[in-house]
Amino acid sequence: MTAGLWRPAPYQDSYLQERPQRRAVRTGTSHTRMDLRRQPDSSTWRAARTMPSRLPPTEVPGSGDERAAFDPGDNELGQPADVHEDSDRQGAGDGTRRRLLRAKGQHETKGQIVVNTQTAQPAGSPVIEYLAVLPTAQRRELLDLAREVTARCEDWLRVYPIVLRPSVTAACSLISAVALPGAAPAELRVLTCWWLWIFGVDDVFDDPAADDSQIACWAGRFASDPPIDPADDDPLRAALGSIHDALSRYPLFARLASQWRTGMAEIVSGMLTERQWSVSTPPTFPAYLANGMATIAVRPYTLTACVLAGERGAAAAFETLDPVINAAARCFRLANDLRSYSRERQEGKLNALTVLGAEYSARGLRDNQALRAARRRLYDTCVADLEYLDRARRAAPPAIATLAGFLWAHTAFVWDMYHVGDYDTVSTLLREGGIS
Length: 436
Description:
Layout: H1 10-18, E1 107-110, E2 113-116, H2 129-132, H3 136-159, H4 169-179, H5 185-206, H6 212-224, H7 235-247, H8 253-277, H9 285-295, H10 298-309, H11 312-316, H12 322-347, H13 352-362, H14 367-395, H15 398-420, H16 423-431
Helix pairs in contact: 3-4, 3-5, 4-5, 4-15, 4-16, 5-7, 5-8, 5-10, 6-8, 8-9, 8-10, 9-12, 12-14, 12-15, 13-14, 14-15
């Protein structure tokens, strides 16, 4: 099997053309052009314009600095409760700070595009900005492709029923189509099934009722005997074996197989470490983040995309993508944790906000100040990474341009999606026609 034929991606081009028109930020006032309400206790707000070579230092902010540059409220990802539990974000930098609106009857100018939730979407439906800026015909083409991929992946899940939570297939399929514009449905199916496997193994390692010794044994076997058999008696191993079998039919897989298997083993090892941390002394924030950047699975995800896209130049120079992969992994992990903080706090699970907030509290901040300072740091780190990813895909040499664009598009879309919902809720909306 050869990689799918590539075609221009008009919907991605439209998004990129619109974004520069939405950059303007007013400083010296208490709001930005993309903000619908005042930002308490803040006279200015600016973006981190370069990606930090490392995370910002962990020192407690100085006097007054513990005030967040945005009002996080009490909801996940800092959504203000007065905008129907969706995000009210300010914008700055290279067009990567984005705001998502879910307010009945309201509309917002985004460059030349006006999105009205009563006309552009079914009443009360959320707006994912990555989709909202696309011309209607191109957006529908993208959604139609995602539906086709979803149907193919649901067929695969009937053979390998490994995802325990309500189906997340629709959101995963849409993200695959966004990240690899021009890919054929066959390639997008494999990429999406790969993500579904990540959800499946995550469900097992997150299950508090699962036996710790059995999970440790399973992880040990995964490391010593990587799954390659679609007929394995273990459902998770069989499912990954089917993906391995599909990838092995592409010419580039032989070249990248060792790196791919190493990346998959690091995911499983990291999930085991995270499960062990939940019943022992919590890690430091740097340790948590390093592990979380492995479990968020961006490196093997990019290797999978490289194989499916037939990117020979990128395969030969894959290490040059390391900074881009790291930025995407960090942003993805922190955005995920910002989104899931409330739920994971209730479930007693580790989360970047919990770990970093505890470090700030130990240094003398009151709990609410520590949480706000932690949220601000994570949010600003995400934005800096998004800006770096945007610059990286623009400056990438031809050999790695497709994958640099892939990492940017995936991360930017997920960032937008997390302001509206998560994989479960967005999949439900897609199935019910709530996003069109």
